Amino acid sequence: MIKFPGIIKSKLPRTGTSIFAVMSQLANEHKAINLSQGFPDFDVSPKLIELISHYMKKGYNQYAPMTGVPLLRERISEKIEKTYKIRYDPDKEINITAGATQGIYAAIACMVRDDDEVIIFEPAYDSYAPAVQLCGGIVKYARMEPPDYNINWPEVARMVTHRTRMIIINSPHNPTGSILREKDLLALQHLTKKTDIVVLSDEVYEHLIYDGEPHESVCKYPGLVERSFVIGSFGKTFHATGWKMGYVLAPENLMKEFRKSHQFIVFTCNTPVQHAIADYLGDEKNYRDLHSFYQKKRDYFVDGISSSRFKIIPCHGTYFQLVDYSRISDESEMDFATRLITEYGIGSIPVSPFYHQRDENRVLRLCFAKKEETLDKAANILCKI
Ligand code: PMP
Ligand code: GLN
User: Fold this and answer.
1) Which of the listed CATH numbers 3.30.1540.20, 3.40.50.360, 3.40.50.2300, 3.90.1150.10 matches domain 19-44+288-382?
2) Is 232 close to ligand 1, i.e. is its CB under 6 Å away?
3) Which of 215, 245, 333, 334 has the most CB atoms at less than 10 Å from its CB?
4) Is the pLDDT of residue 147 over 90?
5) How confident is the model over 106-131, as pLDDT tens digits?
6) Which atom of ligand 2 is nearest to the CA of 20?
7) CATH fold group of domain 62-284
8) In whole numbers, what is the pLDDT of the chain averaged over residues?
9) Which atom of ligand 1 is nearest to the CA of 103?
């Protein structure tokens, strides 16, 4: 083993390995059914794969423009305009990113300075806080309480100070499956009016929303559009998490700053994948029915575990189902999730790592982006616990 002989002053002293990596590795080691990390176990559309191969063979294998392939930016602009009735300029207000994670990081990096405050909502997706901290910012945690995980806006208003630089929202929400509704977006719009606060809206699950509820994108609220970075991910929309392809929307002056950081974090993203997605995005059929596709999976899985001792926490969006195991065990979430793998062969994600103080609510997250046969096998086991 090689060791650095000097003193390392960690910039992230409290951060360990991502819980997704930890649980997926443990699930693989034990050959468990992996409902932990969020990724589908079914195939990407063969048409999309053919398109990538087509563009590779045609020689689209060198650097794409820093901002992204023009046709892809145009297609995203058309899609957003059709869906949310607002036009983002493909050249000045849209940028392709290496997945949502990189878009989130570059947006934070270009906005947050030393001692700026950023408000995030716990339980929070794991990349937000470390990204803020790497940029010298201070994370302020607002809480969403189980089982509804709603935002307490008066509490958020009390947290805002002259140092608040950014508020990060995420709807549909990972890990809870909760969603923001019109009243939430109006509250945020009101709260940020006449301030210099920038909003980062992580909307990677925009199409995974159920029971006929609309997705309340910041794109629908003019007072938020003018101060928001909107984050999208093709990994979610096209079942291809391994391609790491996403995009960011922002008003021109924010996008100008975004590109200054983006160009030195990644510069540009995978060329043939961008061309293929541009083609594929041209046909609305390729994403229009995603909500019913995943709603069927959610219902199938919930039905499968309805006779188990797990309590089901309503899921309104994303491909994650939260379950409360307090009728089964009073172990910590990490201990119970570990035992679920080692004794029962089911991988899950404990929710406690999504809180900075590791709150324990006896809740686990299960990913239902899986084939029916996988969900059947998992449900059979879960019903026996
Ligand atoms: N934000 C949220 C809320 C997510 O769940 C994920 C990944 N599942 C990401 C961002 C990152 O997406 P990507 O894989 O495109 O980087
Ligand atoms: N976003 C995926 C999840 O929530 C995993 C992302 C990752 O592994 N970093 O499970």
Assistant:
1) 3.90.1150.10
2) no
3) 245
4) no
5) 999 999 999 999 999 999 999 999 99
6) 8
7) Aspartate Aminotransferase; domain 2 (3.40.640)
8) 97
9) 16
Distance 37 CA to ligand 2 centre (A): 5
Q: Which residues line ligand 2 (CB under 6 A)?
A: 18, 20, 37-38, 174
Q: What are phi and psi of 317, to 5 degrees?
A: -165, 180
Q: Which residue carries 């969900």 as its tokens?
A: 375
CA distances in angstroms from 348 to 20, 153, 344, listed in the order given: 9, 31, 11
Model pLDDT, residue 126? 96
Q: CATH 3.40.640.10 residue ranges in the chain? A: 62-284
Q: Please tell me the number of the ligand nearest to residue 320's CA.
A: 2
**Spacing, Cα 167 to ligand 2 middle (Å):** 21
pLDDT > 90? residue 145: no
Cα separations in angstroms, 205 against 13, 52, 174, 369: 30, 23, 9, 12
What span, in angstroms and rounded, lies between the C-alpha atoms of 370 and 42? 6
Ligand 1 in reach of 36 Cβ (< 6 A): no
Please give the full DSSP string across 308-345, using - where no structure is assigned: SSSEEEP--BSSEEEEE-TTT--S-HHHHHHHHHHTT-
- The token pair that represents 179 in the structure block: 């969603």
Q: Is 170 in the pocket of ligand 1 (CB under 6 A)?
A: yes
Tokens matching residue 103: 């878009």
| pLDDT 10s digits, 198-215 | 999 999 999 999 999 999
Q: Whose CA is nearest to atom 8 of ligand 1?
A: 38
Residue 50, exposed/middle/buried by CB under 10 A (0-12, 13-18, 19+)?
exposed
Q: Whose CA is nearest to atom 7 of ligand 2?
A: 20
pLDDT band at 363 (very low <50, low <70, confident <90, very high): very high
Rounded CA-CA distance 231/228 in Å is 9
| Every domain range in the chain assigned CATH 3.90.1150.10 | 19-44+288-382
Ligand 1 atom having least distance to the Cα of 102: 16
Please give the distance, rounded to the nearest whole angstrom, from the Cα atom of residue 242 to the centre of ligand 2: 11
233 CA distance to ligand 1 middle (Å):
7
